[in-house]
Specification:
7-stranded mixed beta sheet; 609 residues; 22 helices; alpha/beta
Length: 609
């Protein structure tokens, strides 16, 4: 048997007279400080060794003589070099020591190592960070980053204490698959980060900031969506293993904000989410929160420390407040529903669906009452136009003058917004304008076409409105629409009046790919009743108050209604068509099939508000 390389003999495992089988270890060589095992390439009996331990041998040097056994095992084998690759051997009774140590260490990071903490969590009706991640990600798809991290507190706590009580430094991070069975492996890859409220109250420590930064960098570079479970108490003052004063050089907040408009970002809040955790949550495209959640830029300790009073955690930013004021986009009952909602939301940015069910379109003919003064719910039109089960309403308690939703039409994701005649007759106030403008930004950033259902008498006016900076708020509709890269489609259901209607049609009736109207559509530079009272003031005031003046007003109004009808608008080409409501979905589907999303031009982000 000959040496495969120049090396030093470290150890002989056989002596003259020993019988060996193919694959048996003969000796160990050392070269470049690395040990090489040489094994027999055939069965035989050792008759002579040519070198002693410690001697150096050249490549090809004869190391030992291996004579055939009395009953040769391999009669066809000739003399050659020893085999370097190990042969198959029986498995040892357990894992090797290094693997066993790793398994033991990783076990400390799992929920099973901390049954008391998990029990306390469940007693609150809440799940652990790992339970939420397991529910969100497809089975077996989550690859965890930084699992072995512990809190940066070695100068004040033992290693055993840190391993037992600060697993993963209170934050579980990694990449998993969400909706992979529907959209495939690549579109489903998602960065998932979850603060662990059972570890140091889910606070932000030095190492979980480092883990956050690592994953956010990957998300940006690989263009992966991000889901953040944000429960926790903000910055942690107890980390002592670094020479800092205030710790304000943390890059996590800027890194998280950098994702805005680049990839879909989902924030989920259950329990208490305060301070730094809330700041990250607020940078998300959409915030999903449970009814028992509290969200605030300062928890009780910070509020009291600022001399602002003593409050219970549940008094600060309860969900009932944060849903109405627009902080919460989607309010859900519990964490399982939050996770299901997150999966639904992400699906709109993962691709088209090949299969869908269309609602019965006949019902659209009855959505708008024949009585032009009768209010109705435009959500019925939204639900009737999109694929069954696809409608996901956003910010339902804020800016209620405009409905916003994600949905699908023939499997294709779209953004859908509609005026709400049940609120101020459909007039657009400051909150509704903010809600619609930000929604357009969201769809534009992530390439979703927009569909606008119009029924508005215009922008809300009056002294009370102007006290709320109405001029600035409603103008956001025009500024946002001017930079859209996604196709925009407008359908006028009934009222299409003035600047408000223009704001709902991307700035003007010819700005969308098409602007069509239902037969119930009516148009004017302002509300028709107001137009008559202003335009014909002299004629009306010439008659005494009473039946005669009212009769003239009604006559003039009917003339305006007829002149501003959808069909009259179509004759002057101010709109593209008047259609049967039953045809609306077909118009939208064909429009979506031919429209194109332009490539992003320049930096983009989504307003937090």
């Amino acid at each position: 048997m000959r040496s495969p390389l120049q090396a030093q003999i470290v150890q002989w495992l056989v002596a003259p007279g020993d019988a060996v089988q193919a694959g048996d270890l003969l000796l160990v060589l050392e070269a470049m400080k690395m040990e090489h095992e040489l094994r027999a390439d055939r069965a035989g009996r050792v008759s002579e060794r040519f070198f002693a331990e410690g001697e150096t041998v050249d490549a090809g040097a004869a190391l030992l003589r291996l004579d055939p056994l009395a009953a040769p095992q391999d009669a066809g084998a000739g003399a050659g070099s020893a085999a370097v690759a190990p042969a198959a051997h029986a498995q040892p009774p357990g894992p090797r020591d290094d693997l066993r140590r790793l398994q033991q260490r990783l076990a400390h990071t799992l929920d099973g190592a901390r049954p008391e903490a998990v029990a306390r969590r469940h007693a609150l009706g809440l799940r652990t960070a790992r339970e939420n991640i397991a529910d969100l990600c497809d089975d077996g798809s989550f690859l965890e980053y930084g699992a072995l991290a512990v809190a940066a507190q070695r100068s004040r706590r033992s290693e055993e204490d840190l391993i037992a009580n600060t697993p993963a430094d209170g934050m579980v991070t990694g990449i998993g698959s969400v909706n992979g069975l529907i959209f495939g492996a690549e579109p489903s890859r998602t960065v998932v980060m979850a603060y662990d409220a059972t570890v140091l109250a889910g606070t932000q420590g030095m190492r979980n900031h480092a883990k956050t930064d690592r994953l956010l960098g990957i998300a940006l570079a690989q263009q992966l969506p991000v889901v953040l479970f944000a429960e926790g108490g903000g910055g942690r003052p107890g980390d002592t293993d670094m020479p800092i004063v205030a710790g304000l050089h943390v890059g996590s907040f800027a890194a998280f904000a950098r994702l805005s408009g680049q990839v879909p970002v989902v924030g989920i809040a259950a329990g208490r989410c305060f301070a730094g955790n809330a700041a990250l949550l607020g940078c998300s495209d959409v915030i999903i929160a449970t009814r028992q959640s509290n969200i605030g830029m300062g928890g009780p300790a910070m509020v009291e420390g600022g001399g602002l009073g003593v409050f219970r955690p549940e008094d600060i930013g309860p969900s009932a407040v944060q849903h109405v004021n627009g902080v919460i986009d989607l309010l859900v009952d519990d964490e399982p529903q939050a996770v299901a909602t997150a999966r639904h939301y992400l699906s709109f940015f993962q691709g088209r669906l090949p299969d869908w069910i269309a609602p019965n379109q006949q019902g659209l003919r009855d959505v708008v009452p024949e009585n032009r003064l009768r209010v109705y719910d435009t959500r019925a039109a939204m639900d009737g136009l999109v694929d069954q089960g696809s409608l996901l309403m956003l910010r339902t308690c804020f800016g209620i003058g405009i409905h916003t939703a994600l949905a699908r039409i023939e499997g294709r994701p779209v953004g859908l917004m509609a005026n709400n005649p049940l609120h101020l007759g459909g007039a657009i106030d400051a909150d509704a304008a903010d809600k619609a403008a930000r929604f357009m930004q969201l769809c534009n950033a992530h390439g979703l076409p927009l569909v606008s259902l119009v029924d508005t008498p215009g922008f809300m006016v009056g002294p009370a409105m102007e006290e709320r900076a109405q001029v600035r708020h409603v103008s956001r509709l025009f500024v946002t629409a001017a930079s859209l890269r996604v196709p925009f489609f407008s359908v006028v259901l009934r009222k299409g009046y003035g600047l408000g209607a223009m704001g709902m049609t991307a700035g003007g009736f010819h700005a969308p790919v098409f602007t069509v109207a239902w037969p119930s559509g009516e148009f004017g530079a302002m509300g028709l009743e107001g137009a008559v009272r202003l335009g014909y003031r002299k004629e009306l005031e010439a008659l005494p108050e009473g039946p005669q003046r009212e009769a003239l007003f009604e006559s003039l109004l009917q003339r305006q209604i007829a002149n501003g009808s959808a069909q009259q608008m179509a004759t002057t080409l101010e709109i593209d068509a008047v259609i049967d409501p039953v045809q609306t979905r077909e118009w939208l589907a064909r429009g979506l099939a031919s429209a194109r999303v332009a490539e992003p031009a320049g930096p983009r982000f989504i307003d937090t508000w």
